[in-house]
Amino acid sequence: MTELVFxxxxxARDCEARVVAVNDRGGIVLDRTVFYPTGGGQPGDSGILxxxxxxxxxxATAVKGDTPDEVIHxxxxxxxxxxxxxxxTAAIDWERRYRHMRMHTCLHxxxxxxxxxxxxxxxxxxxxxxDFNIEDPSGLDKQEITDRLNQMIQADHGVATxxxxxxxxxxxxxxxxxxxxxxPMGSGRVxxxxxxxxxxxxxxxxxxxxxxxxxxxxxxKIENKGKQNRRVVVTxxx
Length: 238
Hints:
This protein is of the alpha+beta class. It has 2 domains: 3-92, Elongation Factor Tu (Ef-tu), domain 3 (Beta Barrel), CATH 2.40.30; 97-236, Threonyl-tRNA Synthetase, Chain A, domain 2 (2-Layer Sandwich). It is built from 4 helices and 15 strands. It has helices spanning 5-8, 94-113, 142-154, 166-170, and strands spanning 3-4, 14-22, 28-30, 32-33, 47-51, 56-64, 71-75, 87-92, 118-122, 127-133, 159-165, 189-195, 199-202, 217-224, 229-236. The strands form 4 sheets. A 6-stranded antiparallel beta barrel has the order 2-3-7-6-5-8. A 4-stranded antiparallel beta sheet has the order 9-10-15-14, with helices on one face. A hairpin with a 4-residue loop joins strand 14 (217-224) and strand 15. Helix 2 (94-113) packs across helix 3. The protein is globular.
């Protein structure tokens, strides 16, 4: 298991850690990490592992391991790998991660602005999108949705986390908005993200602490992706 520092401290940019293992594919497992692993539509973090002597190992991405709480740090090609027991400082590319946090929180607002079942989604540093199960798309207007999102952002709502048991979540299926991705159950509890007064749903990603941090956004495209599938693309305006 890896201690997931990012889960409780999404603003942590680095942490001290120890190499637990290097797997047969060259992936590095640490005892604790600030690196978010790819999942829930959010890309894995990139960054570096800094050794005590000053040498650095470039980490291209992070992915989930064989267990829910194991994170594999995937190094860029052609690098010397550390031995188990090596002490390192794990540091993420903060600018990229912070854009992911802003975007991920924005998608929560988008799911509140468009109260339809979500069929898919993807977060990026430059643009992000949600796909919705909408039978009649005639009421979708890019400018109207943009204005609604920016109003929620400017209201500077707080974003909080809490936990719910697997059993309680099963008893409240209305909390799950996504049709294609189910919340990570099996450990006994699931984390909830609560955008005060706007949105409450299970989510394991990283988010900003207040909606005002997202900054201005724009809906740049609404696409038809199937009989009832409509894709809404959002970008950060900065």
